[in-house]
């Protein structure tokens, strides 16, 4: 059996008509990292400016946008299972290879503001890589997944990340390294693999998480963290855009005023000219 193939490019990233979100998609406090040894931000609250903007409803178009998240990694590591556990709260023990790409839209309410993630599931099989890579562009979040019980897949995440970063502006995306199938590993074996993964995450400038789609362990916490970090960045970008527009408007009005005063002074000069007809 094959998974649904989606080859439709989303031309617009605007959301239309939004019913209320489920209670488990409401994020009020800044979610915590998995381990402080490999995390993108150590703080435990939203940025001061973001909090103020949310309270004063100055978040611009953030509530209308859909932020893109791409999930990459070798075949069979559990990318689809991870997304399905979060979006549909289901787990299927049968393997169905992803063909090309597929996506889910998940809606949140963060600090009182609606926010949506478009989570792209990509095929791990080599033969579908050219289709999947066409969808890497514009990713605000890149999730590279590996199987905790198959150490070889950890090493391959470097290449998956490089492929995704090639399609995006340098430093423009948050990067996560996720060890899947946590239920299959425990004790010292799990600790050793996690240590290797944390090491690699630091090299990749990524945040590390261990999860299990089978038991659901850490899945919601992980995506909540992804959503909060992406949301905060979106609001900060919106605020920056707003202040740029304000500067441009201020600059334009100064130059209009300058033009007006220079016209007025020219008129004044010509009006006062004794020889004027
Ligand atoms: N025990 C266990 N098995 C899992 C877990 N996640 C996924 N699996 C199994 O691993 C196999 C592969 O999972 P998929 O989610 O289809 O893997 P994928 O990375 O999407 O694979 P491709 O679509 O080929 O890229 C399936 O048989 C799943 O049931 C997990 O957390 N624990």
UniProtKB/TrEMBL annotation:
Gene Ontology CC terms: Golgi membrane
What domain of life does the UniProt record list for this protein's source? Eukaryota
- What subcellular compartments does it reside in? Golgi apparatus membrane
Q: Name one GO biological process term.
A: protein transport
- Bilayer topology term: Lipid-anchor
EC number(s) per entry: 3.6.5.2
Q: Which UniProt keywords apply?
A: Golgi apparatus, GTP-binding, Hydrolase, Lipoprotein, Magnesium, Membrane, Metal-binding, Nucleotide-binding, Prenylation, Protein transport, Transport
Q: InterPro entries attached here?
A: P-loop_NTPase (IPR027417), Rab (IPR050227), Small_GTP-bd (IPR005225), Small_GTPase (IPR001806)
Reactions catalysed according to its record: GTP + H2O = GDP + phosphate + H(+)
* Cofactor(s) recorded in Swiss-Prot or TrEMBL: Mg(2+)
* GO MF, any single term: G protein activity
For this chain, the family text in UniProt reads: Belongs to the small GTPase superfamily. Rab family.
Function text: The small GTPases Rab are key regulators of intracellular membrane trafficking, from the formation of transport vesicles to their fusion with membranes. Rabs cycle between an inactive GDP-bound form and an active GTP-bound form that is able to recruit to membranes different sets of downstream effectors directly responsible for vesicle formation, movement, tethering and fusion.
The entry's protein name is Ras-related protein Rab-36
Origin organism of this chain? Vombatus ursinus (Common wombat)
Q: Which gene encodes it?
A: RAB36
């Amino acid at each position: 059996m094959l998974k649904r193939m989606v080859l439709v490019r989303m031309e617009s990233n605007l959301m239309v008509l939004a019913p209320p979100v489920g209670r488990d998609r409401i994020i009020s406090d800044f979610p915590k990292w998995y381990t402080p040894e490999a995390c993108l931000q150590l703080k435990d609250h939203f940025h001061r400016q973001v909090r103020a903007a949310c309270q004063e409803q100055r978040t611009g178009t953030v509530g209308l946008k859909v932020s893109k998240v791409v999930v990459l990694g070798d075949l069979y590591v559990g990318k689809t299972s991870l997304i399905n556990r979060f979006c549909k709260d289901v787990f299927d023990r049968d393997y169905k290879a992803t063909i090309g790409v597929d996506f889910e839209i998940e809606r949140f309410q963060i600090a009182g503001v609606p926010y949506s993630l478009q989570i792209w599931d990509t095929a791990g099989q080599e033969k579908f890589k050219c289709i999947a890579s066409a969808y890497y562009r514009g990713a605000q979040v890149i999730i590279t997944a590996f199987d905790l019980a198959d150490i070889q897949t950890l090493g391959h995440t470097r290449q998956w990340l490089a492929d995704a970063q090639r399609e995006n502006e340098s430093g423009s995306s948050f990067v996560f390294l996720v060890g899947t199938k946590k239920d299959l590993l425990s004790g010292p074996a799990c600790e050793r693999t996690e240590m290797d993964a944390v090491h690699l995450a630091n090299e990749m400038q990524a945040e590390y998480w261990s999860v299990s789609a089978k038991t659901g362990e850490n899945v919601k916490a992980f995506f909540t963290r992804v959503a909060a970090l992406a949301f905060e960045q979106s609001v900060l970008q919106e605020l920056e855009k707003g202040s740029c527009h304000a500067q441009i408007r201020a600059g334009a009005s100064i130059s209009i005023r300058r033009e007006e005063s220079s016209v007025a002074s020219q008129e004044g000069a010509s009006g006062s000219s004794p020889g004027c007809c």
